[in-house]
Every structure is written in C-alpha cells, then in structure tokens.
Fold this sequence. Notes:
Elements: H1 7-16, E1 40-44, E2 49-53, E3 57-62, E4 70-72, E5 83-88, E6 93-98, E7 105-112, E8 115-122, E9 137-145, E10 149-156, H2 159-162, E11 167-171, E12 174-179, E13 182-187, E14 192-195, E15 198-205, E16 211-217, H3 227-241, H4 248-252, H5 257-269, E17 271-272, E18 277-278, E19 301-302, H6 303-315, H7 319-334, E20 345-346, E21 357-359, E22 371-373, H8 384-399, H9 401-406, H10 408-421, H11 440-460, H12 466-483, E23 485-486, E24 491-492, H13 519-532, E25 533-534, E26 537-538, E27 553-554, H14 555-567, H15 571-582, E28 594-596, E29 601-603, H16 609-625
Helix pairs in contact: 5-16, 6-7, 6-8, 6-16, 7-8, 7-10, 8-11, 10-11, 11-12, 14-15, 14-16
Amino acid sequence: MTGEGSAPMANKARAMAGSPSVAPVDASRPDEPWLPLTDYGLIGNEKTGALVSRHGSIDWACLPRFDSPSVFARLLDRRGGGAYHLSPTERYVSHHQYVTGTNVLTTFFELRPGVALTVTDFMPMGPPGTSLGGDPRIVRRMRARGAPIEVSIVADPRFDYGRFVPEWTLEKELAIAHGAAAQMSFTSPWTWQMDGSSAVSKGIVEPNVPVFAQARWGEPLPAEPSPASLLTVTDAYWRGWVSPPEAPLRRVAARWQPWVERSELVLKLLSYADGGVFVAAPTTSLPEWPGGSRNWDYRYVWIRDAAFTAQVFLLLGHVNEARAYLGWAFERAAQLKDEEELRPVYTVDGDDPPAEVELGNLEGYRGSRPVRIGNDARGQRQLDIYGEILDSTLVLERLDPAFVRDHWSTIERLAQRVTTLWSMPDSGMWEERGGPAHHVHSKLMCWVALDRAIQLAQKFGKLEPVDRWSRVAEEIRAAILSRGYNDKLGSFIQAFDRPVLDASVLRIGLSGFLPPNEPRVVSTIAAIERTLGRGPFLQRYETPDALKGPEGSFLLCAFWLVEALARSGQMDRALQHWRALLDIAGPLLLFSEEFDPASNQPLGNYPQAFTHIGVLRAAFALGLLATDE
C-alpha cells in the first residue's frame, strides 16, 4: 500500500478540481478566501471525523467524538477557529483523492515539473476488538519526489469551539497543547518553535524517505505501533470492509462504481462504532444558504437518517452494521414508558441531545450566523420514524430472521404505538418549527410501519394483532387517498388541508403504498418536478416556512426524483437527471446536504448522510431497471 492513488484517478481528480491551488496558504490569516466545501475530504475513525482541505489544512475536527467540542474549527472562523496545517513552503498546485477502496486521503502538492510532495492523511483503524479503532489521533505521512522539499507544520488548536487558546509545552519534536481540561499532543520530524499562539515546525523531506507527523487527543502519543504500521492496518481495514465489486448490488450498479463505493465508505465514516449508530453529518452550522440563519448541528443520531443508512447497508451486505443499529433502536423503544414516544434525535450514547446554543465567538462559514451547537428537534414529534425502523426491520428479517424474531415484543410495541399516534399532527421529516400539521409523509410512514409489522407477524405466526393493525392501516390509507391527494394540483400534497407540494411525497411510489407507475404517483412526480424543480434539482417544498431566508436545493429529494422516475418507467429522464447530479460532486465524490445551481456551490452540512443514501438508492434503482445507459 503506497497511500497514493493510481495515475488515471489522480489525473481525473486534477481535472475535476478546477482552478489550481497556489500556496503557501497561511492557516491563521482571516483574509484568506473561504474554500468551497468540495475542497475538503473527510477522514475518521468511526468515533469522529476531520475535514482536510486540499491546501493541507485540517480545518474541522471534534475530538474525541463527533459531538465533542471542536479542536479545529477554522471552517467556521478563519481567525480564531484553529487549524492543523501542513504544506510545502514553496508555491504549489494541489489536488487530493482517496486511496481506492479506503478512507485514506492523499493530497498531491506539485511544486515544479518532476518535484512533488505527497501527504497521506488518516485516522487509525484496525481489526475489530483491537485498540486501534477509535484511536483519537490524526496521522500525516509526507513523501517527497524529485528533490528535497521544505515543509511547514502549523499546530493551532483552539479548544471548546475556539473559546480557549491553549498553553504549550515544547520538547524538541513534541509539542503539547493543554488547558481547559483538554490536552493535545503533536509530533513532527523536526523541532517545534512558538509563533504567537501556534506551534510551528519546519524541515526538509528528502526524496523517497517518508516521514510522519501526528496529532493526538488526550494522552501523549505512544511509541508503538509505529505510524507506518498504522497506515498498513488502516488501509487493510477499509479494503476488508468495503463490499467487493462482485457483490450482487455492486454488480447492478457497476457502471457507477466510484460513486457507489465512495458513498458506502462515507456512510461508514459517519458511524459511531461503540453504539452501532450513525450521525447525520460530522459538522455543525454549515449554512443552507450563504449568510443565512438555517445553520444546524447535525452531529447526532436521527432515527430516520440512521434507519436509511441501515437499509442501504443491508442492500450492500453489511448485515452487522444494520443489526447493531436496529438493536440500538429497539433498546431505545423498549425503554419507553407507556405514554412516552421515541425521540427523533439522540446523542451517540442514546441520550437527549443538548438544547440549541448560539456561539457568538465564531463568525460562521462565509459569515453565516448563528453558529449553533445542540438541536431543538429533540423535542419534536416526528411520526415517520416508526415506519423507518420497521421498514429496515423487514429487510433485515430476510437476512437474519432469528435476530428480528428475538425482538418481536418491541416490534409489536412500536406497531401498537402507531395505531394510537398516527392521527396526531407532527413536525414532519423536515422538522418544521412553525407548529405541527397532519403531514402526508408522516401518515404514509405510519402506514409503512403497520404494513411491515403485519408482514413480520405473518412470518412469525404472531397473528393475534394482524386484524387490528390491518384495520388501522386501511384507515390510514383511506385518509391519505381522500385528504392527502389534491385533484386540482394532480398531486399528493404536503399535509391534510394544506394543498401545497412537498418532495417527501415522492416516497408514496417508493414505499409500496401505491405502485410506482400508478397514475396518481406519476402525476405527483410531474407536478413536483414542474413546481419544485430546476433541472435535476428540487426544493423541499413550495411555501415559506417559519424560518427567515432561502435555502438551497435539497439533494436527497433530487435523488428521490431520479429513483421515482426510474421506477415509474421514465428511464430517459431519470438518467438525464442522474448524470447531472453526479457532475456536481467534487473531485472526492462527496456531497453536501444542499446545492445552489446558480452559483454551483454546495450548501449545508458536509458530507451529508442523507445525500449519499440517495446516491446509493438511485444507483440501485437505475441499475436494476436500465437496459442500457
């Protein structure tokens, strides 16, 4: 394993990267332009993640886990957020790419013809049951080619979301930042010196002699295992985990292999291995519109988003991950008291997330304030989550029936809860803050919950509740068809008595509620594309909400549209939209939550689980249904 991509992929990444990056870039300068999100790659250890720019600066990391306070937050504040920067001191052009089949990130700094520095970044992973997985360190390997290259390393951590500037202890090649009950150690091949509040280390990397720099949260860096061996086992871990190209659904979507593999690996990066759960994104407060206030903290476990991840992992053959998540969800459900409901969002520990707090010390990405930590969606009722859990459970039953059967009492309890909750208003999957409503998508997923519970009951011979659940399921169906469809609009609508369009009802034809080519489904697709669409992009809904300012096009909805078009038989349009959407991925094939087609900029938290789930589902649908491209 070299830690470097193949030449064809490197050339492709360079071509996709657009204008070259010139350097050096001073990570501490507030007048440097904001980098687009596609200039960042994510590395991680299944407990947390770090965003690495193609300038060699780690501008976002929360340690030791996703919802910990940030240590590096230059992504949200160029002056006081903190960063960990490594690059040549000469001018360069740069691009980066992942090592194929892994979450190991390689950045190429090209100084002049034949002279280049390659930096390989990763967080250690290793075989299950070892101490390597989750090690809160960042490893950076440097390798020169063609000539000796001077390199500068700038360590500038700012603890507690930039609110605390640490004190330093320097011991030759070791620098320790400490304070505010926090400590972080940095090692370099060269001596450290202070430069203001940052520790700086400069030295020469000789050709073909790799050297390492490291940063570690908490205890000082141990001598063993060596960083070189960590790279070897981390590379082997990712290659051993990712589903092989000959896996059934990988073969189905083989023509889009790079996007499928990257989406699969990103979703794994967003997992929290200790709990078997998945966070929605590794970041907070990346704006859904530049300068706007729709800036949310996504470093938590949404029941819905995590269930979506479990479903696509099952399709890819990752049964262990799906089983672990559903076991976690069943445990949350089993702990509920009689009148309690599932919360839509939890911490990675399964607790209630903190209330929203605004951080006044951070300027926000591209000046977008407020910067928030915590999430007040924790107090909402979102009824669709019951359907998401039981939909995933039915898929898992086909692969592990014994596990699902063992949780029958909790499944029965969830289904029974739906029979009493479905008729209540809720905040919906978009987490509206203007008051509850009878959202059609929520009613749909309540029907899904009962439909899947009925199928499981029949499989297990648990027939006593089937008639009762069937009656309620038919009641829900009748309500959706009579109050959730508007003849004048020719579409299913956002909520009962609210005749406006909402992209979430695209799922009516994707969930088994109606056939995907049923006339009302087809007319809904057309109405949504016509009203909410801009080329392949979709807004979530057409009416103003309780929040100020616009938002970008929601990429999960765009991929839902691709899937809906494909399943309804409109394959040409599906492929046309699909190709256009793939084109907006950056050189690392990562997607944000939203996108502005006018400025060609990604928006929202990044990378976003929702969007990569949409990529996988659309790829599978197209691969199953397309005869040729």
